[in-house]
């Protein structure tokens, strides 16, 4: 692991810990022909970096577990400390807590942001390197155990106001594939929707890539509702919203109350 070679904490995204089955199904090595020192030819294979899906609670939990096992395997931190006792339990427990009225429940996107902030905090706490100390303790494992009481991470796990999206964090819309109309220098996508610079979330499922994921008012569209496996929530509001977002089609210029896989 490069982190141990550099002897410094670097952020390891959960999607960088794919399962072995995922690796076998997606492994495609790129071969290059190199000229060695003795002027002979050699073929070298470079394996590409794979990123697994972390868009649901179960997939994120499995990715967290694989990452923790990797840290334990290379001797950076104990599996028990990282997963069971402190860090992972704190993260996944936030997904099960009920939010107050007017606030939306913590989702996977918020957990990933908190995870990134946690690793930034780890890099600040572990400055002496990752090697085992004279007392036999692993510095990274001790730092993981102290994350639960750190305000930098706990603040990221608080419920957010329902429908509250700041201008800084509001995702912009992609243009329609059918060619949106232009009016007064702006690209109009529909009622109340305008085009802007756009970058889709890294954890968006492959089946939803290139589709709209927010409404014109900045509200998130439910991913699970648009995937074939679907989902059901007992607390769906009258306007077709669930804790994961608005339940409408993610196809551009549609906005109807049916999932993407049923779009015609």
Q: How is this structure best described in words?
A:
By secondary structure, this protein is an alpha+beta fold. It has two domains: 2-17 and 52-161, no CATH class; 164-264, no CATH class. It has nine helices and nine strands. The strands form four sheets. Strands 5-6-7 form a three-stranded antiparallel sheet, with no helix packed on it. Strands 1-2 form a two-stranded antiparallel ribbon. A two-stranded antiparallel ribbon has the order 3-4. Strand 8 and strand 9 (245-246) form a beta hairpin. The chain is flat and about 65 Å long. Residues 165-197 have low confidence and may be disordered.
Radius of gyration: 22 Å
Number of strands: 9
Shape: flat
- Major sheet: arrangement of strands: 5-6-7
What are the segments in which pLDDT stays under 50 over at least 5 consecutive residues?
Answer: 165-197
Total number of domains: 2
The class by helix and strand makeup works out as alpha+beta
Instruction: Report the β-strand fraction as a percent range.
Output: 5-15%
How many DSSP helices?
9
Reported for the largest beta sheet, the result is: 3 strands, antiparallel
Range of helix content:
25-40%
What value does the average pLDDT take? 76
**How far apart are the first and last residues' alpha carbons, in Å?**
47 Å
Order of H and E elements: HHEEHHHEHHHEEEEHEE
Region (Disordered): 171-205
Biased composition (Basic and acidic residues): 192-201
